[in-house]
Design a protein that fits this description.
The chain is α/β, with parallel strands linked by helices and 303 residues long. It is built from 9 helices and 14 strands. Helix 1 runs parallel beside helix 3, helix 2 crosses helix 9 and helix 3 crosses helix 4.
Length: 303
């Protein structure tokens, strides 16, 4: 086992600066709805301060598994809230191929999936982006979502005013005094928090808004936002199952309400249908995303 190649965080991050992995990610989501990529619901074990989740899957022609910890209080100590490793295996022999840092992949692919959802669901004329949160995922979304729409204004809001000012300065964004101010009038809203109570209210959203929500630690979205969404999009209908496989906000919601993002990307289901629809993408993460990106990183490691 000591001979298995290992890719550290620097090697993974350098590879993710290259062009091409978004296409691998999009293809994995399409193959998921076509039955050519697969993953069971994740499982998790809890510790007093967080949890460890296991996410095996098949995508990009390889088998893989991610072990990821979610420790919301880490930000107070300057540590990522999510930390992970990914192991890849040969799909023909089962032989281990590589072990790599998964923290950067988790951050990058989450923002990229939201960007794919934004490309499919946000209005073409979207001009104002609101980012709720100031951590790793907030920055990932700031980088990714701006690649699919040309926003004239970016707003940032969060619970720590000093951190909000820092992020606003770094991103060339406006520091909103509170979340409501950031959301009102925004065309695209990205919820990137560990909130265990709703931070977003339906009444704040303008007609035609698109919402991305990636928090899995609690309930970022209020029930009205979910109930009144004209288009409720998920990576898979596993999102409607109990946590840790599914999302807290979708408990009790009929799975039939959800549209799989891969189906929209494949053209098998419509995305936004008019300028006034409220569209919501609730992401809980999916192993095929991690495995597909890790496989892309691995296959091009010598490039």
């Amino acid at each position: 086992m000591t001979g298995i190649p290992q890719l550290d965080a620097a090697a993974v991050e350098a590879r993710l600066q290259e062009v091409g992995w978004w296409a691998a990610l999009e293809q994995a989501l399409i193959e998921l709805i076509r039955g050519k990529a697969a993953a069971p619901p994740r499982i998790a074990v809890r510790a007093p301060a967080g949890l460890l989740a296991a996410m095996p899957g098949y995508a990009g022609g390889v088998l893989g598994a991610k072990l990821v910890t979610v420790f919301p209080a880490n930000a107070q100590n300057g540590l990522p809230g999510h930390q992970a490793v990914i192991t890849l295996f040969d799909a023909a022999t089962g032989a281990p191929l590589a072990i790599m840092d998964g923290t950067a992949i988790t951050a990058a692919r989450t923002g990229a999936v939201s960007a794919l959802a934004t490309r499919a669901l946000a209005r073409e004329g979207a001009e104002v982006l609101a980012i709720l949160g100031t951590g790793v995922q907030a920055e990932s979304h700031w980088r990714a979502v701006r690649q699919v729409r040309r926003f004239e204004e970016v707003r940032v809001a969060g619970r720590n005013p000093e951190r909000v000012l820092e992020r606003a300065a770094a991103w060339g964004a406006l520091a909103a005094p509170d979340i409501e101010s950031a959301v009102r009038g925004a065309d695209v809203v990205c919820c990137c928090t560990h909130a265990d109570q709703p931070i977003l209210r339906r009444e704040w959203l303008r007609p035609g808004a698109h919402v991305n929500s990636v928090g899995i630690g609690g309930c970022e979205l209020d029930p009205e936002t979910v109930a009144q969404a004209d288009r409720l999009v998920v990576e898979s209908r596993v999102a409607f199952e109990p946590f840790p496989g599914g999302a807290y906000e979708l408990q009790g919601v009929l799975p039939e309400r959800g549209v799989e993002l891969g189906a929209i990307l494949a053209g098998a289901a419509p995305g936004r249908r008019n300028e006034h629809e409220l569209t919501v993408f609730k992401s809980v993460g999916h192993a095929v995303e991690d495995v597909a990106v890790a496989a892309w990183v691995w296959k091009g490691r010598a490039c």
